[in-house]
Amino acid sequence: MNRYVLLIVPTLILFGTGQSAQPPILARQEFGFSLNPTAQGELYALFIYTVHEDLVMGSVPMRPEPYILQVSGLQESRANLEGLDLFYEFGIAHCGPWADDQGLHDGLDCSTIRDLWKLRYKRDVVGDNDPGWAAEEFTPSVRQQIILQAYRNPAYEHWHGPYYGKDAFRLLRDMQDPKWVALYRDGG
User: Fold this and answer.
1) What Cα–Cα distance (Å) separates residue 147 from each residue in 70, 137, 178?
2) What confidence tens digit (pLDDT) does each residue in 106-157 have?
3) How far from each other are the two terminal CA atoms of the chain, in whole angstroms?
């Protein structure tokens, strides 16, 4: 009798108790950005982040044009396997291809992405005579940092980011709203 018990216990340990095990949770790829300048002199950084359990495990930096093509679904991307126009899905205008009465536009300029620097800087740092929105010279004020916290995982306390996934797209969309810009820039 004891020999049978000794055989059953290891079998239960090895094969479980008949309950099916949950499949392993895999990391996903998400588009995102950081407000940290890059070594190449860019005022912000675009990435495809590897995210697991809502934490960034890795990142691949990207240049703006391929980033815009991949987000808009025109170029294959591991962060957009369905090839959706994520700009359209999240209500971000004039990024990626779009049409109006004047015709079809490529949207590769995507001013919203190119305006990310404005969240961090007060003065014009790109030479287009358009000032930034930050209250301080090279950093958002504490009030502005609180606003930015609503667009990133609470585990990342620093306003640099990372910003990724739906929250990053929400921030890009909100940056196109003049009322949001006034609230961010002036406090009201």
Assistant:
1) 28, 18, 15
2) 667 788 999 999 999 998 877 778 899 999 999 999 999 999 999 999 999 9
3) 79
Q: What is the pTM of this model?
A: 0.81
Asked if 79 contacts 48 with a C-beta cutoff of 8 angstroms, the reply is yes
118: exposed, middle or buried (Cβ count in 10 Å: 0-12, 13-18, 19+):
buried
Residue 71, strand partner residues? none
Task: Give one DSSP letter per residue of the chain, joined into a string.
Answer: -HHHHHHHHHHHHHHTTSPPPPPPPPPEEEEEEESSPPTTS-SSEEEEEEEETTEEEEEEEE-HHHHHHHHTTSS--TT-TT---HHHHTT-TTSSSEEETTEEE---S-HHHHTGGGGT-SS--SSSS-----SSSSS--HHHHHHHHTTS-TT--STT--EEHHHHHHHHHHTT-HHHHHHHHH--
Residue in 65, 35, 49 with CA at minimum distance from that of residue 171:
35
